Amino acid sequence: MWKVCIYRYTVEVSRVPAGNWVLIEGIDQPIVKTSTITQLDFDEDVYIFRPLKFNTKSVVKMAVEPINPSELPKMLDGLRKVNKSYPLLTTRVEESGEHVMLGTGELYMDCVMHDMRKVSVAFVD
Length: 125
Description:
There is one protein chain. By secondary structure, the chain is an alpha+beta fold. The protein has a domain at about 60-125: Elongation Factor G (Translational Gtpase), domain 3 (Alpha-Beta Plaits, 2-Layer Sandwich). About 20% of the residues lie in helices and about 20% in strands. The protein has two helices and six strands; from the N terminus they run E-E-E-H-E-E-H-E. The chain has a four-stranded antiparallel β-sheet with strand order 4-5-3-6, with helices on one face. Helix 1 (about 70-85) crosses helix 2 (about 105-120). The chain is elongated and about 50 Å long. About 10% of the residues are buried. This is Elongation Factor G domain-containing protein. Keywords: GTP-binding, Nucleotide-binding. One of its GO terms (biological process) is mRNA splicing, via spliceosome. GO terms for molecular function: GTP binding; GTPase activity; U5 snRNA binding.
């Protein structure tokens, strides 16, 4: 079953026409930001969508670290999840070993941090 987002609710559907956005659970390992998914025995030519290009630059840089160093894997998992969820977010490790997130503005980063706190509560910003 596919799930379609309608505001804050999700509705399960059995078929989704091309060009629509859907939520698919359980296939996040090979996907970094976006992907094109088809069935294996699809006979027609399949074209991969080009990545989205945005006219914005990251202007806010935020460092994060776990409160308890033993919870670093949990924080890294949270960083991976928000990196996939937010197309304009960039995450990286600085030369100093500091984990940083770069985003387009304060409100955007506040939304990212809200989701990080829901996913992983073991860090401070």
